[in-house]
Structure formats: C-alpha cells, structure tokens
From TrEMBL:
SUPFAM superfamilies: HlyD-like secretion proteins. Residues 313-376 form the Multidrug resistance protein MdtA-like C-terminal permuted SH3 domain. This is Efflux RND transporter periplasmic adaptor subunit. Signal peptide: none annotated. The keyword Iron does not apply. It comes from Psychroflexus maritimus. InterPro entries: Beta-barrel_RND_2, BSH_CzcB-like, HH_CzcB-like, MdtA-like_C, RND_pump_MFP. It comes from the Bacteria. Residues 104-227 form the CzcB-like barrel-sandwich hybrid domain. One of its GO terms (cellular component) is efflux pump complex.
Length: 392
C-alpha cells in the first residue's frame, strides 16, 4: 500500500511540474533542450520534492498504522541473540580402578600356619600377613650357618698363613672356595625361608582372606589374600579413534558416579599412546580424589569429555533452526520493532555443532539480533508479527 501511494504521488508531482502556471516547462521539454545545467537543476528539484513527499507519506503511514488490525498478526515469541562459549562433549562409559588391586599368591609350599590379619584391616607395606610352615627348613639353615662359620674360620686362618708365605696356594684357594660356597648356600636358604613369610606389597586394605589357616598352599595355585589400595584410584575408559585429534591430556571432563550420587568436574590426566587393534579405541585416565566415600574398584563411571570448544560465538536453541528443500538453514530476525510489533525477515545462517539443545551459528547472525523462537514454523517472509514475550 505504501509503495503504491508513493508511486502515485510521484506521478502527481510530474504532472504538476508539466502543467504549472506556465512558468515551468515539462520534463520532456527540458530533455529536448539538451542543456546539462538545466537537466541537473530539474533533477535536483525533483529529488528534493520527492524526499519531502516521502517524509510526509511516512507520517501518514504511521498515523494509518494505528488503525490496522494488529489482532490478525501472527503471535510469536522472541529473544535477543547473545555470544557465549560453546562446548561440545562426548559421552563414554568407564570403570573405577586402581593399579594396586592385587591377589597375593604364596611363593613357598607348605601348610598355612598363621594368618595375622582379617578382612577390612588396613596394612602397611612390608607388614607380615601370614606365615607358612617351613617343614624344618629353619633347622637346615642353622646347620648350614654353623658349617659356613667353621669354613670362614678356616679360610681366615689359611689367609693369614698365606700372607706369611706359609702353606700352599692350593690350600688357601680350597678354603676360600669352601667358605664362599657355603655362604651362598646360606643366602639362598635364607631367601627361600623369607618366602614362607607373606608380607604386604603396598599400603592398602585387606579386601579378602581367601584361604583358611591350616590349609596346604602352593606357589601360583592358591591365592591367599586380595589387597587393595583405595588411596590412588582413577577412572579408565575407551574412546573411539575418531576423537584422537581432539582429546588430549588436560581436556576437560565431567565424571558421574551414579551409584554414589557424585559428579566431578575434572580433566584427563593420561592418554594412551596407541590404538587397540581389536576395537579401534584408545584409553584415557582421570585421577579421582581420595575424599570420595565408598569408592570401590570396578564401579561404573560415565564420562563427558570436552572434544570441541568455540569461544564467544553466537549460540541459539537448536529447535528454531529451519532448513529449506535446497539445504539452506535459516531463522527469522525481527526488523522495524515498535510497540510489540515487528516484521519477520528471512535470515540465512551457517550452523556449526550442536549440543544439549543448542547450536553454534558460524555466520549469519550478530550479537543483539532479535530472533523468533516460538511461532516461526508458520511464518512467511516479511510477515507482520505481534511479539508476545521477549527473552533477554
């Protein structure tokens, strides 16, 4: 309507110029005169008159707008576009584990003579846990020590004589060899007897006592204890090789231990240096604090790992983004906003990644653009709308 009114007014102006009081000539006559200065003067005059009329027409249109039936406008909701940091996360499942979760096997055959700890006891590295009957090996060791001591005395005596050039070299060497052989035998026997004592390999908790006192045990066959260190636990998970370039040591991660109702905002502490052939995954590790109560090995953990970040980018709700048959993405941006009415204009955009109902817009929107969030599906380009609410 406004365009038609403006066009009619312009033609009326031309008629007025050509049909004046005789003091002015028509446009055709000025053109026929072929005078540059006269043509330029006429152009400037027409331009100023058109501008004045346009201003007047705008006032009239504004006054007429008050009589328009705004109830027929499409009711929409809108919000201002803002920039913020966009972060994308992937979700994988892992397990709580520890490097110090060990089944302890005996290294000596015999009867399990004495157990000194119970399940749940906290033990220190080197603490005696149990002893195995040595079957008389201790007596054999005592005899061997006595023989070694006698051989040592003979060797030292023969050495003194040899230093005084008394006796033969062969007597000295035989005494030396006998002593060294017996000394080595004592060391070996002592080493074997030490294996009859089962000691804690690290600080931890006796999680399980597997065999009862009095049973016969053998090396590599009967596990006696399970010792667990609950102070240095971590989560380990497998990540598909697709993310090998986007997840590194120091990447942000959120750990959820649903069974304990615990959620931690932490980071990746270690990334494996190879990819498994069997599943095309690589391992990541996240250390856990010692302060988490009831934390146990093999507890299931859910990891959300940050694999992509774009700082200070336009982010909008994903559900308002629309796509044409040609594959173009667009939203409606409000223009000419006044008294809760506006014009919905088609605005093509270039989207990026999406996460949890939000999507980043790489091109097509600027901060503080006001976009339609509800009611956009039925809109047409350039349609007048009535704004119900505006979210800031």
């Amino acid at each position: 309507m406004k365009a038609i009114t403006t066009t009619l007014a312009f033609f009326a102006l031309l008629i007025l110029i050509s049909c004046g009081k005789g003091k002015e000539v028509s446009v055709d006559e000025v053109i026929e005169n072929n005078d540059k200065k006269e043509l330029q003067a006429l152009k400037d005059k027409l331009y100023h008159q058109q501008r004045d009329l346009s201003l007047e027409l705008e006032k009239v249109d504004a006054a007429l707008a008050a009589f328009e039936d705004k109830s027929r406008y499409t009711l929409i909701e809108a919000q201002n576009v803002q920039k913020k940091d966009f972060r994308h996360f992937i979700k994988v499942q892992g397990n709580v584990t520890t490097d110090e979760n060990l089944l302890i096997y005996p290294e000596f055959s015999g009867v399990l003579e004495k157990i000194y700890v119970r399940e749940g006891d906290r033990v220190n590295k080197g603490q005696l846990l149990a002893t195995i009957n040595d079957g008389g090996a201790q007596n054999q060791l005592a005899e061997m020590k006595a023989q070694r001591d006698l051989a040592k005395t003979r060797f030292e005596r023969q050495e003194r004589l040899w230093n005084q050039n008394i006796g033969s070299e062969i007597q000295f060497l035989e005494a030396q060899t006998t002593y060294e052989q017996l000394n080595n035998s004592v060391k070996q026997m002592q080493s074997q007897l030490n294996k009859s004592e089962i000691r804690a390999p690290f600080n931890g908790v006796v999680d399980e006592v597997i065999i009862d006192q009095g049973q016969v045990v053998s090396p590599s066959q009967n596990a006696i204890f399970r010792i667990v260190n609950l102070q240095e636990m971590y989560v380990q998970a497998n990540v598909p090789e697709t993310y090998v370039g986007s997840i590194n040591q120091g990447s942000r991660a959120i750990v959820q231990l649903r069974a304990l109702g615990v959620e931690l905002d932490t980071q990746i502490n270690r990334v494996s240096s190879h990819i498994e052939d069997s599943n095309r995954n690589f391992r990541v590790r996240l250390n856990l604090p010692d302060s988490i109560p009831n934390l146990k090995p093999n507890l299931i953990a859910t990891l959300k790992i940050n694999d992509y970040t774009n700082e200070e980018v336009v982010v909008i709700p994903e559900n308002i983004l629309q796509e044409t048959a040609a594959g173009e993405f667009y939203v409606y941006v409000l223009k000419d906003i006044k008294d809760n009415t506006a014009t919905a204009t088609y605005n093509q955009v270039v989207p990026g990644r999406n996460y949890r109902g939000e999507i980043e817009i790489l091109e097509g929107l600027s901060a503080d653009d006001r976009i339609v969030t509800e009611g956009a599906r039925t809109l047409k380009r350039g349609e007048k709308v009535s704004i119900s609410t505006t979210e800031k």
